[in-house]
Amino acid sequence: MSEAPATNGPVARAAAFCRRFGLRAPILLAPMAGACPPALSIAVANAGGMGAAGLLTQTPEGIAAWMREVRAGTGGPVQLNLWIPDPPPRREPAHEGRLRAFLAQWGPEVAPDAGNATLPDFGAQCAALLDAAPAAISSIMGLYPPDFVAALKARGIAWFAVATTVAEAVAAEAAGADVVVAQGAEAGGHRGAFDPSLAERRLVGTFALVPAVADAVKVPVVATGGIADGRGVAAALALGASAVQLGTAFLRCPEAQLHPAWAEALARARPEDTLLTRAFSGRPGRSLATRYTAAAAAPDAPAPAPYPVQRGLTAAMRAQAQKDGDVDRMQAWAGQSAALGHAEPAASLVDRLWTDARALLNAA
Ligand SMILES: Cc1cc2nc3c(=O)[nH]c(=O)nc-3n(C[C@H](O)[C@H](O)[C@H](O)COP(=O)(O)O)c2cc1C
User: Fold this and answer.
1) pLDDT of the residue at 363
2) DSSP letter (8 states) at residue 88
3) Per-residue CA distances from 194 to 58, 86, 141, 329 (Å)
4) For 13-43, how does the pLDDT look when each residue is reduced to its tens digit (9 = 90+)?
5) Model confidence at 62: pLDDT above 90
6) Which of these, 160, 196, 17, 154, lies nearest to 82 by C-alpha position?
7) Shortest CA distance to 195 belongs to which of 38, 349, 306, 329?
8) Which terminus of the chain is more exposed, N or C, with fewer CB under 10 A?
9) pLDDT above 60 for 2
10) Measured in angstroms, how far is the CA atom of residue 221 from the centroid of ligand 1?
11) How far apart are CA 356 and CA 364, in angstroms?
């Protein structure tokens, strides 16, 4: 018996999201600082999805250059992303000394001032985002200040706010977010918890978070975390999402230009081969479980310094690991579904995800 397609089901909800943002598939590349070269966004946007950049470490000039390069390759929509800054960290020189000695066992000597890591000026980055005029600007680790939200609205740029709990999602909607990105604990990379001290205690998985957020807010919900094939896309839409956002699954696409040692390790990683760690940046993020992450979690190892001090302290080790091709000391972020990703062009991944999800949702 054939039935008319539902007008309020998952496929209709995804279609409404696609119309609003000029997409042909409800598939978003996740913003990933350091892992979103323009070529990846160009390929995703030209395949009908949404491109993205994680611009945390980029200067205003770097932000403008990224956008110029993407615009030369696609007229499709992209999302630009920043972290909301934390208050200045508390410094503990004696403890940092112990960390420097520990890290010198894993990489080069750590310079005495390595913990003074600074990031580009947030206000100047925000101004550069507005100038770049993307389809969407996203936040993680908190909420944009009201004057910036007003500036977004005045320019017709949508605000996508990452939330890791229902309370964060409700706060984001109240602050004016146009879309909530519900980030489950399976996600690769940093957790977006507004309060880092709670990030490890409130580990809500995508399967529980997406329907709870969809019930709690009126704005569309994008599901992210552990989605890496058509089954995950279909499940997320059925749970109430309007679209999905994938990070780790895109990392093995040739356009991502990932270090081969990291890409090969992703292919082998079972869900239990990743873990949440503060050992790279001081903020908890999900990476491959490696020799370094195990050593940093040992009872006799010095606890990581707060963000971004730890990021500065580990910079030399991370750079050396890239040079050596040693995944055991690399900052190798990975979501729990890493092994579901394939080494294939990003356009074919977008096509495969949406074709398979539509078949599962009986909407082929
Ligand atoms: C290498 C890497 C870097 C990331 N950097 C950022 C970032 O700068 N900003 C952000 O909002 N999320 C960042 N994330 C999180 C992703 O946006 C997204 O939430 C996550 O990749 C989804 O889970 P998945 O990896 O299982 O698909 C990063 C993730 C990875 C894997």
Assistant:
1) 80
2) P
3) 21, 9, 4, 28
4) 999 999 999 999 999 999 999 999 999 999 9
5) yes
6) 160
7) 306
8) N
9) no
10) 17
11) 9
DSSP reduced 3-state for 305: coil
- Copy the structure tokens of residue 314: 């580990």
Distance 82 CA to ligand 1 centre (A): 12
Whether the CB of 225 sits within 6 Å of ligand 1: yes
Pair 281, 330: CB distance under 8 Å: no
Strand arrangement of the beta sheet that strand 51-54 belongs to: 27-29, 243-246, 221-224, 179-183, 158-163, 136-140, 78-83, 51-54
What is the C-alpha to C-alpha distance for residues 91 and 79, in angstroms, rounded to an integer?
34
Q: How many CB atoms lie within 10 A of CB 167?
A: 12
Specify whether the CB–CB gap between 206 and 226 falls below 8 A.
yes
Average pLDDT over residues 310-338: 97
Contact 17, 220 (CB under 8 A): yes
Q: Is 247 in the pocket of ligand 1 (CB under 6 A)?
A: yes
pLDDT in tens, 192-205: 999 999 989 999 99
Atom number of ligand 1 nearest to Cα 33: 8
Amino acid at 287: S
- 218 neighbors 207 (Cβ within 8 angstroms): no
Max CA distance (Å), the chain = 73
Whether ligand 1 lies within 6 angstroms of the CB of 335 is answered as yes
Nearest atom in ligand 1 to 225's CA = 23
Residue 348 has which token pair? 């074919």
Structure tokens at 231: 């089954």
